[in-house]
Design a protein that fits this description.
Elements lengths: L3 H6 L9 H8 L18 H22 L9 E7 L4 H12 L6 E7 L7 H11 L3 E5 L5 H12 L4 E4 L10 H11 L5 E9 L5 E5 L6 H4 L9 E4 H6 L11 H10 L7 E12 L14 H16 L4 E6 L3 E6 L6 E7 L3 H13 L6 E7 L5 H12 L3 E4 L6 H10 L5 E5 L3 E3 L4 H9 L4 E9 L5 E3 L2 E3 L5 E3 L19 E3 L6 E5 H7 L12 H11 L3 E12 L11 H13 L1 H5 L22
Parallel strand pairs: 1-2, 1-4, 2-3, 5-8, 11-12, 11-14, 12-13, 16-22
Antiparallel strand pairs: 4-7, 5-6, 5-7, 9-10, 14-21, 15-22, 16-17, 16-21, 18-19, 20-22
Length: 600
């Protein structure tokens, strides 16, 4: 099920020529296509948009009836900085605001000394015809930050919405914003999903976003469009900053988010912004504005400095970033549960000992009744090489084994490692530790690969296939995934226990794994969700990489206890499974590759 779920509960809670003719023509879509083949990915975004139209129409009719009864009708100031756009796209942008079914808006336009002589008369014509369209004409060109600040000075609304001079918004965009504010009047930041629209009106490349995802925001400006902000909050931080052009919106969000509580940030999981993808636009090619890359670095460095966070930045691909946090070298206990399977555990241990550049760690083998002579001999040998081995007899209970092993250790950080994993990059443990050492972070997971170089784990998405499944499972390791998330550090609802690092203090605070309800399945997901209840974020990092055979030592599980674990998870975490905040209801719960949900 897709966005229709969102429409169904809207009004109860939120997650977080002529005007009409021109805009409707610009986003027109063809007839609905046949349903996709069962089991195959649904990637036809044109068809998706067409199927959404009846839902949007129904919402618009409903909103027109509800409008007189809205408790709050905040004035929304749409900020439009302008510099030499193609007049027809500028006109389409303005008309898309005029077309809004929510009437309480004003359009604040600042022309940044355009050299195109047709721009000023066009803007003057609109401001003369509409009392809620205001225009100011700057005497000198100052670039987008200064132009945006000039537009801000015209604003008298409670909230400010940002619109670029060649983009457009659907007619119900501001209505959605107003509904969100009515549901959560304390909201300071609202952002929505977006897509791209070309010169022919074809829509493509939807960006269906996560709810508030602070670690992802430090790698890319995933919030982008449509961004709506409380005007007083923007004024409190001094508006847009000159010198950050190309990343001025990212800089704004970073500075605002540092000042407000995360529960005042709302995400509407619906495309409410169409980003014009034409030659010369950032939507067409990020390289069109290469200065934006350095502006982003500057904004991120300022953010870390003002937060008193010791961090440096490394570029990822062309326009993304990897924060590298400074940290001490806390002691780490690497817990490896096993029962025989010498072929696996030996490979695992030796890969850790020979392929780890972090020095302050101890390997701890938690042996659950191994009986094979070769295994026992190897564990005796490993002890002489500095490996600790402890006996944990009894029926196999993965949660109990880890709990007992961790309880016996005094290290500051514990790293759970399956015996069927193999380290493949030397910095893996340093990467896990630097995130686990952060006070706001709980469990940290790495990027696990199948032996054939395809992804096995890049975070866990709740609801996929039932309880949840690994993000980007089966894509090639060279694939950056949906909106680059497979290549970037980010927050997920859970990470796998096959490679999970966490401070021991957090482990103890939460109570470790649940031996009774999740003895051998979903103990990691349950643990991560309990950490979230305590205020700790789960972090996925693609910069700690291991190969994982995935249950090679145990095989598939169809036991009664597995079914019991499923029942427990469905009851205990029903709400989280129904709506994973780090995923999006427009994306499939049938597949791990972030393809479109069907039906929408």
């Amino acid at each position: 099920m897709g966005i229709s779920r969102f429409f169904n509960f809207l009004g109860r809670r939120d997650s977080n020529g002529g005007a009409s003719t021109k805009v409707e023509e610009a986003i027109a879509t063809p007839d609905i296509e046949a349903e996709p083949t069962p089991g195959q990915p649904y990637r036809d975004y044109t068809d998706f948009c067409r199927r959404m139209e009846p839902l949007v129409s129904e919402y618009c009719r409903n909103f027109s009836h509800r409008l007189p009864e809205l408790k709050r009708r905040p004035l929304i100031s749409v900020i439009l900085p302008v510099y030499n756009p193609e007049p027809k796209w500028l006109e389409a942008a303005i008309e898309s605001v005029i077309d809004q079914i929510y009437p309480d808006w004003e359009l604040c336009i600042a022309d940044d000394c355009s050299t195109d002589t047709s721009i000023r008369p066009l803007l003057e014509s609109y401001s003369e015809r509409y009392s809620n369209i205001h225009a100011v004409f700057r005497e000198r060109n100052g670039h987008i930050s200064e132009a945006s600040n000039s537009a801000l000075k015209l604003a008298s609304g409670e909230y400010v919405a940002l619109l670029d001079h060649d983009d457009c918004i659907p007619k119900h965009a501001l209505a959605r914003i107003a509904d969100c504010i009515n549901q959560r009047p304390d909201t300071d930041i609202i952002y929505t999903d977006e897509d791209k629209i070309d010169e022919y009106g074809a829509r493509s490349q939807p960006h269906f976003k996560s709810d508030w995802n602070p670690d992802l925001l430090l790698g890319q400006n995933y919030i982008s469009h449509f961004g709506v902000y409380r005007l007083s909050a923007i004024k409190d931080i001094g508006g847009f900053r000159a010198g950050y052009e190309g990343a001025q919106d990212w800089d704004l969000v970073l500075r605002l988010s540092a000042q407000i509580s995360p529960d005042r940030i709302r995400h509407i999981p619906e495309v409410l912004y169409h980003w014009r993808s034409i030659s010369g636009s950032t939507a067409r090619d990020i390289g069109e504005k290469s200065y934006a890359h350095e502006a982003a670095r500057k904004a991120l460095e300022d953010y870390f400095q003002h937060q008193n966070v010791d961090a440096s930045l490394e570029p990822v691909d062309r326009f993304y970033w990897r924060p590298v946090y400074g940290h001490s070298t806390p002691s780490v206990a690497i817990i490896i549960p096993t029962r025989d399977r010498l072929d696996l555990v030996k490979t695992c241990i030796e890969s850790v000992l020979t392929n780890t550049d972090y020095s302050n760690f101890r390997v701890v083998v938690a042996d659950n009744d191994s009986i094979e002579e070769e295994t026992l001999q190897y564990l005796d040998y490993a002890k002489k090489e500095g490996v600790d081995a402890m006996q944990i007899p009894g029926e196999f209970n993965f949660s109990r084994i880890n709990n007992l092993a961790i309880a016996s250790r005094n290290e500051e950080i514990v790293c759970l490692l399956n015996n069927d994993t193999r380290v493949i990059n030397r910095s893996w443990l340093n990467e896990l530790v630097m995130h686990a050492a952060r006070s706001s972070v709980g469990p940290v997971g790495g990027k696990l690969l199948f032996p054939h170089d395809h992804v096995q784990h890049a975070g866990i998405v709740l609801g996929i296939g039932g309880i949840g499944s690994e993000a980007f499972k089966f894509i090639h390791k060279s694939d950056d995934g949906y909106i680059h998330r497979a290549f970037l550090v980010g927050n997920y609802s859970a990470v796998t226990g096959a490679c999970l690092a966490v401070r021991k203090s957090v482990w103890n605070e939460v109570g470790g794994f649940d031996e009774k309800n999740t003895p051998n399945a979903y103990s990691d997901v349950d643990f991560c969700l309990r950490c979230s209840e305590k205020g700790y974020r789960s972090v996925f990092t693609p910069f700690a990489q291991l190969v994982h055979e995935q249950s090679a030592s145990r095989g598939p599980d169809n036991s009664p206890e597995f079914k019991t674990a499923i029942s427990y998870m469905q009851n205990r975490w029903k709400e989280a499974i129904a709506r994973d905040p780090y995923y999006n209801p427009n994306l499939s719960l049938e597949r791990e590759d972030f393809t479109l949900a069907f039906p929408p």
